[in-house]
Amino acid sequence: MYEPEEDEGPITREDNPFIEKFEAFFKDRYSKEIERLVTNYPKKRSLHVDFTDIEHYDPDLADEILVNSDICIEAATLAIKNIDVPMLEIDEFSPHVRFHNLPPERQPILKDISAAHISKLITVEGVIQQVTEVLPKLKYATWKCTRCEAAYKIPQTKNQPKTPTLCTECKNRTFLLEEETSEFEDYQKIRIQEPLELLKGSEQATNLDVYVSDDLVNMVSPGDRLKLTGIIRLVPPKEKKTVYGRYLEAVHIEETDKEFEEVEISKEEEAHIKELAAKPEVYDVLVQSIAPHIYGHETVKEAIALQLFGGVKKVMTNDQKVRGNIHILLVGDPGMAKSQILKAADAIAPKSIYVAGKTTSGAGISATAVKDEFGDGGWTLKAGALVLASGGMAMVDEFDKMDPDDRSAMHEALEQQTISVAKAGIVTKFKSETSVLAAANPKFSRFDPYQPFIDQINLPPTLISRFDLFFMIKDVLDRTKDQEIANHILRTHRAGEMMLQRAKLKISTRDRELEEVQKEITPEISADMLKKYISFARQNIFPVLSIAGMKKIGDFYVSLRDQGRKEGAYAATHRQLEGIIRLSEASARVRLSNDVEEQDVDRAIRLVKGSLEDMVTDPETGKIDIDIITSGQTHTQLANLKKVLAIIKEKGHELDMVPMEEVMTEAKTLGIDSEKVRDIIGKLQKSGDVYYPKHGFVKPT
To answer: Does residue 392 contact residue 353 with C-beta atoms inside 8 Å?
Structure first.
């Protein structure tokens, strides 16, 4: 094997055995690709070489590329210039040779990169976390002697400037950079993060800085998932220390469009997944497998199961995208295990991220542009949780505790599945195709059964309306249910204590009571198998609505709209219609069916109807009124508000100031009691439609 000398100079044809080998390889295998490159040069400046082609052609040369990466890449770059191409009429033909598709042993995960990989060619996979703006970087520096002005042109291969050590003319050691005659190339810095699905438990994601140059710049955006081939370099410590930093000097970039982890599923596991999907009780099995240690909440668990499988993302002919991700909002009294349900879903989802309340900022959950050291003082685009979890799920706990400004960053992400950033002249868009499972508490800690839901939650109606399903989890004072919950919790704790005791005291005898409780709290489908089940379904099953299913959805939607047609109220909008479609598709995916059948539609309708009846029922009419979450008020409240405002405006034409008593008297004839009139006038004052000129009087603005 070739071993370079320590002080070896520039590689030439005479002293490097790899140049001739690469020339022979290019002539034999890549002559057509080189001809195409010449035709498009300098617009296209890279020749992409599949490593497996070199392995088949010359295994020894392939080994040398892995061991002596720098020398081989430079040899390949010199060799390509020597290929005789008939149409080559370019004065300066200096393309890059970019190797990719390395063998598996050269594709470590980020946390496994070690000192053994330094100066070696490797491939890593990660999600783009930060990207800097494009900056110029020295490629060939012209140094001028400060005494005799002799010029020296030196190639720059590292991040530290390489200067002449001594002027050959006058023996001076001081030089100045002549920028006008130096050559620069585009340069960009990227930070990648380990894919979320590769993390186990509470592991911290590993980061790696990547330097790209020339035609590789501006190829990626934060949130993209990539395979990057390059050489691991060292960053010298700023102080006199022995610990060095590291970065990857990119040679090749390949985007991998993975929604969920491409898990390796054996034939036996695939057969087991199909066997599970064929069971009539598969939905009950899924519900039992989601947080079995938490008693009850079957409807919520069923909805989360469908959310994990997801609907089908559609791309229309005009490139318009219709989301397939399902969003769910849980609002409940304290101590109802909302956080535990979120954590359980986080553990099951093949790709997910968990964030909570006050610890989450707008930039942390969406994306932003900042000036920092990573960008060498320039602007850096940073991806947040919803971008990093794109293609998976985001669990947002303590949703109501988030700062309103930070929470507003989610509006676009929930519906359009993108996040737009416009800051300091940087205008860009991130992909955030993420399902959101959020949990919140009522405004005053507990629900008041006599108050409308919307008045008890500290969330804007415009944000709530973007969720497909919303569930109220109430702490009901029911003796029978309380006894069942207490028994379940006590038995679970006793089982945990017994298992710990048996493990510490090394007791191996069987215990029937322990076995019964373990069976009760053990998921029927293990977390690992459930991940594979979900991944298999999302990657292979793309169900289509049946004619019968379409009719059933259409009839249900129209019947909802009919409920309020006479009064001009809205029981549903197109968002509920699309939500039913997504849930129906997810239900079909659970069965591994390519057709959305009536049973899937029935399940989706049951969940949506239950959600609407629970959350958006007008307490005055008893009917479903979607205006509660689209405008924050029911249709009846809006109608009464308009009536009171009309009374004030009419009397305002006759009187300078309208007495409150007169407004109440006239409103009473329209069926609006005095207490409601006071509330309505208070709302009108907040919106700026009326004001109080003095106590007991009101006046329109």
So the answer is: yes
User: Is 199 strand, coil or helix?
Assistant: coil
> Is there a single domain that holds both residue 161 and residue 46?
no
Alpha-carbon span 54 to 26, nearest angstrom: 10
Query: What is the domain extent for residue 663?
Result: 635-700
pLDDT, tens only, 52-70: 888 888 888 888 888 888 8
Check: CB of residue 395 under 8 Å from CB of residue 345: yes
Q: Domain for residue 26, yes or no?
A: yes
Q: What ranges in 202-309 are assigned the alpha helix state H?
A: 267-278, 282-289, 298-309
Same domain, 89 and 166: no
Residue 681 belongs to a domain: yes
SS3 85: coil
CATH (domain of 670): 1.10.10.10
Residue whose C-alpha is closest to residue 297's, from 542, 26, 545, 484: 484
Q: How many CB atoms lie within 10 A of CB 435?
A: 28
Q: How far is CA 207 from CA 89, 133, 204, 248, 269, in A?
A: 44, 19, 9, 11, 33
The verdict on residue 299 lying in a domain is no
d(CA 646, CA 226): 60
- Banded pLDDT at 5 (limits 50, 70, 90): very low
List pLDDT tens digits, range 424-463: 667 777 788 888 998 888 877 777 766 666 677 777 777 8
- Span 131-169, pLDDT tens digits: 888 888 888 888 888 888 888 888 887 667 888 888 888
Residue 47 maps to a domain = yes
In this structure, the answer to whether residues 79 and 140 fall within a common structural domain is no
The rounded Cα 381 to chain-centroid distance in angstroms is 15
| Whether the model pTM is above 0.85 | no
Residues 67 and 138 in one domain: no
The structural domain count of the chain equals 3
Among 220, 255, 290, residue at a domain's last position: 255
**Residue 122 pLDDT more than 70?**
yes
Show the tokens assigned to 15: 């002293």
List Cβ neighbours of 558 (8 Å cut-off, separation of 6 or more).
Answer: none
36 shares its domain with 123: no
Backbone angles phi, psi at 683, to 5 degrees: -65, -40
Number of Cβ within a 10 Å radius of residue 540 = 13
Pairwise CA distance, residues 358 & 355, whole Å: 9
- CATH number of the domain that 27 lies in? 3.30.1640.10
* Cβ atoms 468, 579 nearer than 8 A: yes
Say whether both 144 and 87 belong to one domain.
no
* 193 and 246 share one domain: yes
Residue 183, domain CATH: 2.40.50.140
Nearby residues of 85 by Cβ (< 8 Å), 6 or more positions away: 31, 34, 35, 38
Phi, psi of 169 (to 5 degrees): -85, -50
pLDDT tens profile 634-688 = 556 677 777 888 888 887 777 778 788 878 888 887 777 777 777 787 778 777 7
Q: Between 9 and 134, where is the model more confident?
A: 134
Q: pLDDT, tens digit, for every residue of 286-311?
A: 888 888 777 778 888 899 999 999 88
Q: What is the largest CA-CA distance in the chain?
A: 106
Domain boundary among 224, 255, 286: 255
List, in order, residues 6 or more apart from 414 with CB less than 8 Å away.
327, 436, 463, 466, 467
Percentages (nearest 5) of helix, strand, coil residues in the chain: 40, 20, 35
Same-domain check for residues 36 and 58: yes
